[in-house]
Amino acid sequence: MSSLLEQLPSSTTLLSMYASFSAMAMLIRTILNEMVPKRIQNYISTKFLDLASSCLSSDFTFIIEERWQAVLNETFRAVEAYLPTRIGPFTDSLLIGSNEPLNPSAPPKQRIPVDCKIVDEFHGMRLEWTLRNSVDSNKYFPREKRYFRLNCKKGDRDRVMQCYFPHIATTARWILNQRETLNIYTYDRESSVWEPTVFKHPATFETLAMEPEVKQFIKDDLDSFVERKDFFEGVGRAWKRGYLFYGPPGTGKSSLVAAIANYLRYNIYDLQLQTARSDADLRHILTSTTNRSILLIEDIDCGTKVSHDRAKDQEDNDEQQNSNRLSSTDPGVTLSGLLNFLDGLWSSCGHERIIIFTTNHKDKLDPALLRPGRMDVHIHMGYCTPTAFRKLSATYLGIKHHPSFLTIDNLLQNITLTPAEVAQQLMKTDDPEAVLQSFIHFLEMKRNLRDDI
User: Fold this and answer.
1) DSSP β-ladder status, 353-359 and 240-246
2) 92 with 117: CB under 8 angstroms?
3) Which key words are in the record (predicted)?
4) Is the pLDDT reported for residue 319 higher than 70?
């Protein structure tokens, strides 16, 4: 033992060695600071720390960003729907709110706020989720970027990919199919984001004042579309369906859109073409919509000439330039840009989408918009018929049969009246008998005015 102690270096020797090493380290540091640029030093230190962290840490992190290759990330959407069901004792914060103005005592809904940690257990794995956000560096159109971080053990990485993410996707699809409320989105041009509002329109196919065979045709067409994913893939077509609702104002075009949304349980994206600065901006706007949704462009013939018949526009004004532009300050959307998303290469960026256009003047639309593949189904929304009146009477008055119906039927045959006008007359009082007599008087006045003209 004594011989071993004698072989150890003395404290003086150790101090001398430490001093030499420190001097050498300071010399090397001085040389690096003088010869190596600061940016390269930071890069080397960052890589060294990353390497050390990866070697020493037993954790693995998945990053799920909101957008993936220019479109919305469906995995992000699935996680967003799934995580509120996993709120538990380890959750450190919650975002709560209510969208029930008629039921203030209803419990608030729960959402996941930024930087909130959610802990999930799946097949013996402990999985920690965090929602983060950042703002990109685009100085012209800065956009908020949201993403989820999932931390797990390195040894669980493969099981997370093969079992956990498919479980999330399946659960999220069931949740979205069972959702109690729908959203209607409008595009905020300044923030470059879709802003949601709770959509609770009461219209259904049962309440629509339409011919029964037309309603059944639309429902059958929607059912066929939803169930034929394999067919669309087999024939090489994008899984989407285009509808055109046309007719005079007040004939129920917007109510039909609401009925379709309630029937399919699809959210609505209400787009005003004037909000798009260019074709590129339009692509970003449209690819920001989710799958299993309705893209609605109302009154496409109004406010912009992007959809107008180019031949007629040229006949009306041979000197007009760029007639399919939205404004003089922005490049605007072109007809070709809109068509490319409807039926071009960009139409494949998304699945299970309903695209609905409404117009009061179908004859003003460019023929290129009307062909199958862009607007597959054309539905004419006409004036009120006797059948439609009976439906309105049952809905508003609770009356399916009445002796005055025959008189009303005869008057409606010779008068053009929209369902909205009829509904307005049926809402005057709570007395059905008085309402029907007042309505007959109203129809007779309309007939007399027509005859006088």
Assistant:
1) parallel
2) yes
3) ATP-binding, Hydrolase, Magnesium, Nucleotide-binding
4) no
Distances (CA, A) of 167 to 128, 161, 338: 16, 10, 37
* Spatial contact of 183 and 267, defined as CB atoms under 8 Å apart: yes
- Strand (E) or helix (H) holding 297: strand 293-297
Mean pLDDT within 145-166: 93
**What are the residue boundaries of the structural domains of the chain, listed by start?**
59-180, 193-380, 386-452
Give the pLDDT band of residue 54 (cuts 50, 70, 90).
low
Q: What angle do CA 231, 256, 185 make, to 5 degrees?
A: 80
Determine which helix (DSSP H) or strand (DSSP E) holds 44, and give its type and residue range. Answer: helix 38-56
Q: In the structure encoding, which two tokens stand for residue 206, read together?
A: 């049962």
Radius of gyration of the chain (CA): 32
User: Can you give the three-state secondary structure of 138-188, one letter per residue?
Assistant: CCCCCCEEEEEEEEEEHHHHHHHHHHHHHHHHHHHHHHHHCCCCEEEEEEE
C-alpha dihedral over 277, 282, 284, 285, to 10 degrees? 100
Q: How far apart are CA 436 and CA 90, in angstroms?
A: 62
Q: Which two tokens stand for residue 250?
A: 């007040």
Which residues, in sequence order, are CB contacts of 380 under 8 Å at separation 6+? 246, 247
| pLDDT band, residue 325 (cuts 50/70/90) | very low
When mean pLDDT is compared across 130-139, 213-222, 281-290, the lowest value belongs to 130-139
Across the range 270-293, mean pLDDT stands at: 87
177 and 184 Cβ atoms separated by less than 8 Å? no
Q: What is the DSSP letter of 332?
A: B
- Whether the pTM exceeds 0.85: the reply is no
Both tokens of 295, joined, read: 């893209």
Q: Which residues pair with 359 in a beta bridge?
A: 246
For the stretch 362-404, pLDDT in tens is 888 888 888 887 888 999 999 999 999 999 999 999 998 889 9
Assigned architecture for domain 193-380:
3-Layer(aba) Sandwich (3.40)
Q: HSE-up of 53 (CA within 13 Å, CB side)? A: 9
The token duo for 13 is 């020797």
- What are 123's strand-pairing partners? none
User: What pLDDT shows up at residue 341?
Assistant: 78
